[in-house]
Inverse folding.
């Protein structure tokens, strides 16, 4: 129904064999050590949620994987045949800092990413259709000719998601993609993202503060604070006593505000609805 | 050149086209307008108005160095110097935390001061004042050829690099995630800006070159909704104010460059008033 655009476009089922490996991974900027000793395997077909307090280095980790910040340790991407190759990385930033007065349309941005033909000369029918199909996959095809500065926050994030998915990425990085967006917008976005892993052959890393929503959508939770504090399924992480003691108040508070997932509240140590 | 002269005589049989220098200037405007139109839109997109201004001002130091080294025609020294400066600013931007504004402001003031100090030594600054105001009417056919090559270069560069420039100007992180070498592209754009500004400076003038670069793009921005409109409108405004300015400067006997800029400013004002209808 909603996701026909995506399904038609990709025939690749996820194989579960490709993976991104981080080994002994660390980031030091200047004299400040921001991340250290990170060992992670991220498999395709999985949605890994990266949670942690502010300043824990979540965004830094994504930027280091993206190559924007230099890192120590090893980062490798292995495909199904266990061969190393350069992955196609899709990236949706927390918010796109751009000049809202700039006369650039959604189609301009799309074509600029995909083709080398100068977009100031106009667009070929081929790219118009391709962009339209991509946008249809995120329920945003009506935005094709809109000016980028005229989009709402949720619309812009969906456009960015559509762009990150074309060409098909091996690894999709989402950095708090829906912070500051209303509940409907958030659920729409997360529904889209969690459907992706079934229809695309990709791994998703999602940074988020929505603990309750994450417990519903994520396959794996990685609690990050300078290094990996805890890693496992949502149930494992949210029922871990040590984690709750160290990061608990924020968990309970979040869960208390949006009681979407009762089982966490029970495991969260007797918070009553 | 002869074909151009006969063509103008044939198509535009007016009093002002009787002079060869006016025909040359008209051709110069037709060549410079597309360069400035496409360059200006990208400079405005990148919020580099202040940067191109600095490059313009630092041309003074370029001239001064050329004079010190004893060159008759300081153009090449100016180009080399401004390219070095552009690279330096671009590197400084990535290396330090200081705001780009501050770095560029500091460099700009230093360069102007240095240029004036060297050129005014012995009280001979007046002969360089043509660089300050610019003299489009004195352009020769060799210089027109240089402009034509510059235009070809810009078209080639834009054909290959436009989308990359655009993505980097929208958001560097996004561009990086699409596999674009952001720093390299950024530096390349800085160099292209430096070369073009420096080449055009002796005809437009240091004091107003930046306005000519920025005003048409800023005007086009007010009333366009996508990249194609932006470029078409910017080109039309540059051409219209160029030709209008040239004509009026002939009849009013004023400095051509400045008259052109005034026309561009009129366009800016007009589009600013019309903006609510388009936004």
């Amino acid at each position: 129904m909603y996701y026909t655009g995506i399904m038609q476009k990709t025939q690749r089922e996820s194989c579960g064999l490709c993976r991104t490996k981080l080994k002994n991974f660390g980031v030091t900027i200047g004299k400040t050590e921001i991340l250290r000793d990170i060992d992670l395997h991220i498999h395709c077909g999985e949605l890994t949620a990266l949670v942690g307090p502010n300043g824990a280095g979540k965004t830094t980790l994504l930027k280091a994987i993206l190559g924007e910040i230099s890192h120590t340790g090893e980062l490798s991407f292995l495909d199904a045949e266990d061969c190393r190759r350069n992955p196609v990385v899709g990236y949706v930033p927390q918010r796109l800092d751009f000049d809202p007065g700039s006369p650039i349309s959604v189609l301009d941005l799309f074509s600029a990413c995909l083709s080398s033909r100068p977009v100031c000369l106009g667009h070929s029918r081929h790219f118009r259709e391709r962009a339209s199909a991509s946008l249809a996959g995120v329920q945003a095809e009506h935005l094709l000719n809109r000016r980028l500065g005229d989009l709402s926050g949720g619309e812009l994030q969906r456009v960015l998601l559509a762009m990150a998915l074309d060409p098909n990425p091996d690894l999709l990085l989402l950095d708090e993609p829906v912070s500051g967006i209303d509940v409907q917008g958030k659920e729409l976005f997360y529904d889209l993202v969690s459907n992706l892993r079934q229809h695309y052959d990709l791994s998703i890393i999602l940074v988020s503060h929505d603990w309750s929503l994450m417990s519903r959508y994520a396959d794996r939770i990685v609690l990050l604070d300078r290094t990996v504090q805890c890693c496992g399924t949502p149930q494992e992480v949210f029922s871990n006593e040590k984690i709750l003691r160290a990061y608990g108040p924020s968990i309970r508070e979040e869960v208390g505000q949006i009681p979407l997932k009762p089982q966490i509240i029970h495991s969260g140590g007797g918070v009553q609805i | 050149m002869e074909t151009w002269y006969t063509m103008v005589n044939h198509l535009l049989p007016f009093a002002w086209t009787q002079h060869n220098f006016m025909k040359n200037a008209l051709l110069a405007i037709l060549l410079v307008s597309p360069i400035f139109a496409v360059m200006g839109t990208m400079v405005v997109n990148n919020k580099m108005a202040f940067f191109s201004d600095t490059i313009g001002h630092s041309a003074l130091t370029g001239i001064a160095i050329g004079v010190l080294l004893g060159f008759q025609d300081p153009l090449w020294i100016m180009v080399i110097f401004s390219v070095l400066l552009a690279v330096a600013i671009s590197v400084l931007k990535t290396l330090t935390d200081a705001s780009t504004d501050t770095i560029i402001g500091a460099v700009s003031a230093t360069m102007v001061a240095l240029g004036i100090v060297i050129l005014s030594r012995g009280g001979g600054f007046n002969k360089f004042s043509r660089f300050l105001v610019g003299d489009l009417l004195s352009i020769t056919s060799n210089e027109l050829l240089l402009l034509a090559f510059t235009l070809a270069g810009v078209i080639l560069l834009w054909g290959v690099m436009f989308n990359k420039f655009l993505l980097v100007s929208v958001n560097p992180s996004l561009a990086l995630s699409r596999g674009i070498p952001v720093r390299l592209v950024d530096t390349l754009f800085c160099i292209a800006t430096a070369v073009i500004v420096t080449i055009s400076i002796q005809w437009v003038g240091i004091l107003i070159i930046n306005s000519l670069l920025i005003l048409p793009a800023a005007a086009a921005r007010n009333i366009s909704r996508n990249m194609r409109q932006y470029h078409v409108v910017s080109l039309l405004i540059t051409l219209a104010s160029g030709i209008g300015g040239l004509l009026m400067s002939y009849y009013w006997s004023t400095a051509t460059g400045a008259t052109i800029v005034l026309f561009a400013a009129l366009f800016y004002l007009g589009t600013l008033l019309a903006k609510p209808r388009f936004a």
Notes: Residues 219 and 268 of chain B are 4 Å apart (CA to CA). Chain B has a mean pLDDT of 87. The interface with chain A takes residues 38, 41, 45, 47, 158-160, 162-163, 166-167, 170-171, 173-174, 176-178, 220-221, 224-231 of chain B (CB under 8 Å). Chain B has twelve helices and no strands.
